[in-house]
Amino acid sequence: MQPPLSPVQMNGVTVIYLKSEEVRVADKPSIITTILGSCIAVTMHNARLRIGAMCHSLLPVCGENKSCDGCQTKKYKYVECVIPEMVRLLAKKGIGKEELEVKLFGGADMTMPKTKKPNIHAVGRHNAEIALKTIRLHDLKLVKSDIGGDFGRKLFFFTDTGRILLKRLAK
Q1: What torsion do the CA atoms of 161, 130, 92, 66 make, to the nearest 10 degrees?
Q2: Bond from prior residue into 60 cis (ω within 30 degrees of 0)
């Protein structure tokens, strides 16, 4: 069954299904939901204005020679590009990065071979590493993370409170 098209109303609350390579910023109470494997979701919440944002990124780095600021094609696809873009989108709403609580999810190694040597090129692990590095680089306050492993995750992000409901999915 296909996920519902976003957004939909359920009991008066907007529910948004976030697909890969998407970002949503909600300034009205909403629930943003997504399903992750090796992909990364980053949430940013501002308690003062009760605004939340969430991304669902597919790959760690874009590989373009220019900075992510100039990356216009597929900038939400890449972890290193989407995090500063989310900060920029929230700054347009009057929110400084020091006011953001950041949470990080995903980065599972869903197809990691069952050998004694870890796959150092696993996409999930690389996604998580780049997300952590980018969060530190931009001096963001990471308050929670659930990354790695070999299982998927389903997230429900309540944009007005910053609350996350997380369900780990069986293999």
Answers
A1: -170
A2: no
Indicate yes or no: pTM above 0.85: yes
The 3-state secondary structure of 95-119, one letter per residue: CCHHHCEEEEEECCCCCCCCCCCCC
* CATH architecture entry for 10-169: 2-Layer Sandwich (3.30)
Q: Measuring CA to CA, how many Å separate 28 from each of 11, 34, 164?
A: 15, 18, 16
Within 8 A by CB and 6+ apart from 114, the residues are none
Question: Per-domain residue ranges for the chain?
Answer: 10-169
Provide the H-helix boundaries in the chain. Answer: 79-91, 123-137
Q: Exposed, middle or buried: residue 147 (CB in 10 Å: 0-12, 13-18, 19+)?
A: buried
pLDDT tens track for 39-58 = 999 999 999 999 999 999 99
**Per DSSP, what are the bridge partners of residue 33?**
17, 156
